[in-house]
Design a protein that fits this description.
Strand order of the largest sheet: 7-6-8-10-9
Number of strands: 10
Strand content: 5-15%
Radius of gyration: 28 Å
Largest sheet: 5 strands, mixed
Distance between the termini: 48 Å
Number of helices: 30
Helix content: 55-70%
Length: 705
């Protein structure tokens, strides 16, 4: 109940901030960027804006205050009480000030109502989100069910959540590599852990913020598609393409089916991810990503909100430049490029004229830089703050947003607003990184080709086609027939995609897939526009072609949605009792400062207890930039210590509080556990099971005398 109150207060505060500081936000859905009437419910923008401007700052406030009170008894409780009172009071004050100053925009009922198509759209998005999130993670009859397709990623996620909800993970340490800094963006896990701490059941604490964020992303993508094109159908179709990705994989899968296999069974009973490019069989590109990386699904909407806020500056710039070009002295240069005499010379003059005009009327012109009064400053500061605060929710989204805005800034007016937003977000990101991370937050390097099997030009092109299918061809066709504004927008949308194929920021370049997915989400808008333009031809053959193309673009994604559901059926779920003795013991007897020496666990009852693992499953820590090889050596030395004196020295050096010996240790191929030495050195404080299946916890603070 208190967790629900927390979310209500956060969103209430966000609504007050938006109403008081950004009253124009409600009008975003009224018209397209070109002035066409849209009549989209304002709630499609307002509610996501309330969520992001409320939940993100309030959660940061709780975290900071809890960190400052980390040595106080019930520090988290005090932090929550203070922040909930502060933010609720702040929201009330902002509303009262707005009413007194008559600056609160009163929304009319008809502006909030959904059309019948929007009701259907929301119903489908809610169904999709609920089905995905609760299929992969839920509690029934006091048993936690974790989906087969997400349990690996959930290992560190749930470990972090439980380290906050039952421990005192301040200063924050990574649950699968305890004792060092935190390199992984963890604030979404802190939000979920805090909600559980406030009494919300674990599955609701994890799923509800995921649901809110994912629905917000769909809502903002719908609005952005409609505003860019003036067609609501484009917004709806863009969301369809976003949900069900384009890829030729299903066609190859069907082509390789043996003749005796039923196509119906192959399509509706299959439970293994298909894929013919590197790691595609992980479910790396489909809806499963948003199931196992909830922080990514939650954060995408912030990028869309930033693009929505800044795109008007691009439209104004292009409109102004067109007017000045044809009305000014450069009209002769513009016409020169269209004459038949001296074609090459005229072409050169034409290009030089455009470049000179851009420098004179945009790059070195006050309209190209000056802030748009108080509103422009609020927009720049607001977007900068929210992108900067997002860095430890999902840093990839912050970087992707800055890449998109950088290209938009080149051709937009009011570049100083883009610059201010970028500076604020970068400064906040650097401050957070310097606080949480020892050394550099990223290790940038040139790495061409992403994870293409053959990292040559043609090898990469082949990889991209096998990954994305025909959608990029459709986007290219729309680019060719579009006006200057849409071309600039498509180029901006492509920046994260290009970035992912040339730059690596982490030891594992695979994590660049988030940048590709951001671009593919944004590409859904021009792709949807292409389908709508075909449909509007009103010729039967062309409309049939549009429907066929839409089916080709979505059939693999739809098939993969079925695979996600099949793979996460109850019979395939990992199950954990919510009353497990081992989990309960850890939650009651250990804090987040107590480091556990264990086998390299992924997800089990120890992780669900919130135990901070000295060396958990190595991939998670390695891909985040930790030195797992050294930890592997230390684990082997401690488990193989041949004397109590050596074990005590190693335990003290590595700040180990608890040592767990279980079946995984006893059958390990990496070392031969000397349980006899551990028994002679430290007292066993917990034991469960018999024989090799026995799990024993030794407390290094209780030496054997």
């Amino acid at each position: 109940m208190i967790g629900a109150v927390y979310l209500f207060i956060a969103i209430f505060f966000g609504s007050a901030v938006c109403s008081r500081l950004f009253p124009e936000l409600g009008g975003v859905t009224a018209k397209s960027y070109c002035g066409q009437q849209l009549k989209i419910s304002r709630l499609f923008v307002l509610v996501p804006a309330w969520v992001y401007t409320g939940v993100i700052p309030m959660t940061w406030c709780v975290y900071i205050l809890a960190y400052l009170l980390r040595n106080a008894e019930h520090g988290m409780r005090i932090a929550n009480i203070v922040c909930m009172i502060l933010f609720f009071t702040g929201g009330v004050v902002l509303y009262l000030q707005g009413v007194t100053a008559k600056k609160i925009v009163r929304l009319k009922k008809k502006e909030l109502l959904f059309s019948k198509w929007e009701v259907l759209f929301l119903a489908l998005v809610l169904y999709l989100s609920i089905r995905l999130f609760w299929t992969t993670f839920r509690i029934e009859d006091n048993t936690l069910y974790v989906g087969l397709s997400v349990f690996s990623d959930f290992s560190p996620h749930l470990g972090m959540i439980r380290s906050f909800s039952s421990g005192n993970n301040f200063p924050t340490s990574y649950s699968h590599f305890a004792g060092e800094d935190i390199k992984y963006h963890f604030m979404f896990q802190f939000l979920a852990g805090n909600l559980e701490y406030l009494g919300m059941r674990l599955d609701f604490a994890f799923n509800i913020p995921s649901l809110i964020g994912f629905v917000s992303t769909f809502s903002l993508l719908y609005v952005l598609g409609a505003k860019l094109t003036g067609k609501r159908a484009v917004g709806f179709l863009a969301c369809l393409l976003f949900a069900f990705r384009s890829s030729p994989s299903v066609f190859r899968y069907l082509a390789e089916l043996p003749s005796e296999v039923s196509i119906k069974d192959a399509l509706f009973e299959h439970s293994e991810f298909i894929g013919y490019s590197t790691h595609e069989d992980w479910g790396l590109w489909n809806l499963n990503v948003y199931c196992n990386q909830r922080h990514f699904a939650f954060s995408l909407g912030v990028l869309l909100l930033a693009v929505l806020a800044f795109l008007p500056l691009l439209y104004r710039a292009v409109s102004r430049l067109k007017s000045e070009w044809w009305e000014g002295r450069d009209i002769t240069i513009a016409k020169a490029g269209k004459t038949k005499e001296d074609g090459f010379v005229n072409l050169v003059r034409f290009i030089i004229g455009h470049i000179r005009f851009f420098f004179d009327h945009s790059l070195f012109y006050k309209e190209g830089w000056f802030i748009e009064g108080a509103f422009g400053l609020k927009r720049a500061v607001g977007i900068g703050l929210i992108l900067g605060l997002l860095a430890f929710w999902n840093g990839a989204v912050t970087i992707a947003a800055l890449l998109v805005l950088f290209v938009l800034a080149i051709v937009s007016d009011r570049r100083l607003e883009f610059f201010i937003a970028a500076v604020i977000s970068v400064v906040l990101s650097v401050l957070q990184s310097s606080f949480f991370i020892e050394g550099s937050a990223v290790s940038a390097s040139i790495y061409y080709g992403f994870i293409a099997e053959n990292r040559t030009a043609f090898g990469v092109l082949d990889y991209i086609f096998r990954l994305t299918g025909f959608v990029l061809f459709l986007v290219a066709a729309v680019f060719a027939v579009s006006d200057a504004v849409k071309r600039c927008v498509i180029l901006a949308f492509s920046m994260p995609f290009v970035f992912s194929f040339y730059i690596s920021l982490t030891p594992d370049v695979t994590v660049n897939h988030k940048y590709i997915m951001v671009s593919l989400m944004l590409f859904c808008i021009p792709a949807a526009l292409g389908l709508v333009l075909l449909w509007e031809k009103k010729r039967a053959a062309v409309r049939v072609a549009a429907v066929f193309l839409a089916a080709v673009l979505t059939v693999t994604g739809a098939f993969e949605y079925i695979i996600v559901l099949n793979r996460n059926e109850t019979k395939n779920n990992l199950r954990f009792s919510m009353e497990d003795e081992l989990t309960a013991w850890i939650r009651e007897n250990a804090t987040a400062q107590d480091i556990f020496l264990t086998s390299n666990y992924a997800l089990n009852n120890v992780v669900l207890g919130g135990a901070m693992l000295f060396d958990g499953w190595q991939y998670f820590a390695w891909s985040a930039g930790y030195d797992t090889e050294l930890r592997d050596i230390m684990v082997r030395e401690m488990y193989e210590a041949d004397s109590p004196e050596q074990l005590r020295t190693l335990v003290e050096q590595n700040n180990i509080r608890f040592i767990i010996v279980d079946y995984d240790n006893r059958v390990s191929m990496e070392y031969e556990v000397r349980e006899d030495i551990i028994e002679r050195t430290f007292l066993a404080v917990y034991s469960q099971g018999e024989g090799d299946q026995r799990t024993t916890i030794y407390d290094t603070a209780m030496p054997v005398k």
